[in-house]
Amino acid sequence: MTDASTGAAMRAVVFTGGGDWGLETVPQPVARHGEALLRVLRVGVCGTDEHLLHGGFIARFPLVPGHEIVAEVVGYGPGTTGPDVGTRVVVDPTIFCGNCSACKRGRPGYCTDFGSLGCDRAGGFAEYLTAGVEKLFPIGDLAPEVAVLTEPTACAMHGVDVLALEPAADVLVFGAGPTGLILAQLLRVAGAARVTVAAPTASKLEVARAHGAAHTVLMDRANAGAAEAQLREIAPEGFDAVVEATGSVSVLELAVRMTRTGGTVLVYGLAQEAAIAAIRPYEIFSRELTIRGSFAQANCIGRALFALQSGSVRTEGLVTAEVGLDDFGAALENLHDSAQIKSVFTPA
Ligand SMILES: [Zn+2]
Ligand SMILES: [Zn+2]
């Protein structure tokens, strides 16, 4: 390597496997042909980061995590051009092989060699990163603290695409984490006449109501039956579509029961890989239920950014903590604090 920037160092959060991580000084990445060098502005901390820490999903160690990235263009690799230096961008973290049968059928979301910045290669919990120029989305005058929710909004957008609602649908969302709160808003944009949100934390339900949820139901995880009675009062015949955005098996079982005959259940939450739910095949058969899944996103970043720019998805109240390189541990702890919604990393 003879590149002029070789030798520069930066600080980064590094996951080393087995649940271990540290703050390290590592070489600053060098943009290759087709890539931009980016200075990190904001990166969202997400439950996926916790799964990666413990070796789940597609983790490859040592790993600089962070896949919900807002950054500023610093420069480009040899023979590469893109948005002006200084432009603020959202980075689409997904990487598709372009060569498997799914990619060749135009369904990159099913790529068998799916990769992602911050999951199997260096991401944004650092001072700098590199990304392909085709993955940069300029944010214009959108504030970085709002733009940082673009990637979760893109994943929710994909979920809404998969759900393919009928106009004026009556929809129930289980979960009021960042994605539940974004999904509840996007479902309105996608045609839901009424959205109900059920979750175990009152403060999060307040945020859901502030962003347009018609009804909210406080759920006690230990007493799902009580929530079922309340939900039946709202929709005696069940909801046209029910979104499970918690990853909990018992909630998925309730989601099936709360779906109207002929309706659809969307499995959005990340359950334990080995978890098994008790669902009666007879019920799916006799009530003609549809069960769909939604995984990550492909090519949804542009629309997600527009949803934020246009104000159809609002982010007030979603970011509950800001953490820097020196207190990144707090961000991991916040993932287990039910009062927290979204922590955002800034390197400074
Ligand atoms: Zn995420
Ligand atoms: Zn592929």
UniProtKB/TrEMBL annotation:
InterPro entries, alphabetized: ADH-like_C, ADH-like_N, GroES-like_sf, NAD(P)-bd_dom_sf, Zn_alcohol_dh
Coiled-coil residue spans: none
Cofactor: Zn(2+)
Keyword annotations: Oxidoreductase
Domain Alcohol dehydrogenase-like C-terminal: 178-298
One matching Pfam family: ADH_N
Regions crossing the membrane: none
Domain (Alcohol dehydrogenase-like N-terminal): residue spans on this chain: 33-140
Identification of the protein by name: Zinc-dependent alcohol dehydrogenase family protein
Species of the source: Leucobacter allii
Biological classification of the source: Bacteria, Bacillati, Actinomycetota, Actinomycetes, Micrococcales
